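Aim 2, interim progress: modelling of the NDP-bound target.
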Amino acid sequence: MDKVLIIGAGGVGRVAAFKCAQHPEVFREITLASRTRSKCDAIVADIKTKMSGRADKASPRIAAAQVDADRAAELAALINDVKPDLVMNIALPYQDLTIMDACLETGVHYLDTANYEHPDTAHFCYSPQWKYHERFAEAGLTALLGSGFDPGITNVYTAYARKHYFERMDTVDIIDCNAGDHGYPFATNFNPEINIREVSAKGRYYENGTWHETEPLSVKKIFDFPDGIGPKEMYLLYHEEMESLVRYYPEVQRMRFWMTFGQSYLTHLKVLQNVGMTRIDPVMYNGQEIIPLQFLKMLLPDPASLGAKTKGKTCIGCWITGSRKDGDSNPSPFDYYIYNTCVHEECFAETGAQAVSYTTGVPAALGAAMVMTGQWSGRGVFNMEQFDPDPFMQAVGDWGLPWQEIFNPHFQI
Ligand code: NDP
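Predicted structure of the complex, ligand included:
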């Protein structure tokens, strides 16, 4: 297997295409397709320019194409034309099911970075995609879900911690900080529509076998981030990887997800919500139906354009408590923090994208490599934590996202 089709040419698609191109030992042919062909052409041209200076490695063949992934027939025609071994879905969560259908129809492996959402309801859950398990299994195909950072690397971190250090995990806190500054009073680091739907939804966390709901952004803590980032306010959100992690690690008593936001972002979001600009139901304007959030997206900076302006770091990781594997006679609780720190400017210098796109595009490409090289193999639909974390963890540092561990940090969250 050496041919990949990437669908989606936003910030994440750009990084995924760059990363695939940097690994011709896995990806010999890359096609980047999106709704807007010119965006693919621009990324392909940038990759060719950057790769031309690298005499050390053979370059893969890379081409651009146009496709509307909401149209199943158009998509299947492109897949039959390109004949990839795997399709990387880096478009929007709305396209997950049509792309999975097209992969089944054409007999191709599938990967994405975000779970399916229906455009009309901001509801995130894996069940529509888990329902494809039997069909992928019968077709002898692999579908790898949520191969970004969170979901994605956070699932692998949890699997790695469980495999190597924990006899039993009691709590998992996933902690996501973007300490970067793009200079705008309000902009989102990935697709504005998806980002605002996620952040303005009710919070949810898991405790003692039950999901507990909280009002949006109503639970706040301060966390002292490593690598010079320092203390930041972070808020409890619902995030999709918790659904698969509690499924595959039922021993966990409590699971929470936290994300940092700056005050300017929160103030703007509140005003936009209060005036109805984040609504996802249609309203009539000048005799035409519009969705306020989609209109707002048109006014906000394109996340793919933020790279040149964003300065600072991201830090995403998992803090896990439980009992230690080595049978240590000391019964005191064990806790463990594993994380990655990324510098926006370095990501931009390498790929032309900021760190939020980078931290998603790298694991997308590496997840694809895991499937294409057979290091992760299975028939059906899988989340990242279901595979052996070791080959992924051994490679992910070299691919651009090194990780660090702190044993017994004894955080209080
Ligand atoms: P962007 O909005 O910047 O890019 C999305 C791309 O998908 C655009 O190029 C767009 O094309 C294309 N697209 C949208 N609809 C279609 C369609 N029907 N057919 C073909 N192409 C389409 O988003 P990002 O790059 O920021 O994010 C990409 C994905 O990554 C999202 O699903 C997001 O939720 C996910 N993500 C996951 C993270 C993780 O850690 N797991 C973190 C961050 C993001 P056009 O521009 O022409 O409209």
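The mean pLDDT is 94. The chain has two domains: 3-145, 153-353+400-407.
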